[in-house]
Amino acid sequence: MNFGNVLENGLFALGQVLRLPVMLLLWVCVAFALYYAGSYLIEAVRRRSEREGFDIKRWLQEGRVLDTSEERRAALPAGLRHMLAAIQELNSAQALHHGGLENVVAEHEEKLRHELDGPRALVKVGPSLGLIGTLIPMGSSLAAMASGNLNAMAGQMVVAFTSTIVGLATGTLAYGLVALRQNWVSASIREQRYLAEVVATELETR
Prior knowledge:
Number of domains: 1
Largest sheet: none
Number of strands: 0
Helix content: over 70%
Order of helices and strands: HHHHHHH
Shape: elongated
Number of helices: 7
Oligomer: single chain
Strand content: under 5%
Radius of gyration: 27 Å
């Protein structure tokens, strides 16, 4: 028995074993892409509603940040509102000094950036799975062509090209979502840092 043929046949068999998991993972990528698209659409509507007429500079000019009432704090967007609540809680416990304020800002920034991890993974995983899902049926297609079974070859080619389309479409959609979300994250981080700078100034002038 030719050892090289054994290795080649083994690799071909392994590729066919991977076929079902790859197809399932492609469907998972499609499901996640649609989920992220829906959740981002909902968030876009929410952001537009809560930020309509909001200006962080004008809000800061209305009074001290550390002494903000719950009613005034409610006018902030959700991210800033939660961060300010955490800052006021630490201020009540006299824990804002010695890195407390910086830690709160870092935690909220990390939370915002962490929300990009899923779509960023799809940008790479979707096309990669699409490529694998293309190459596996191509092997079966070539084998069918060698045996003269043109119908089987055509069926395998359809699966191969469909996998490519699905993988690229998933990655493209995820890339668009990442770009959109990145703009939101950058804007939110700028506002959070601005708010934190004002709080730091108020702490120094006590």
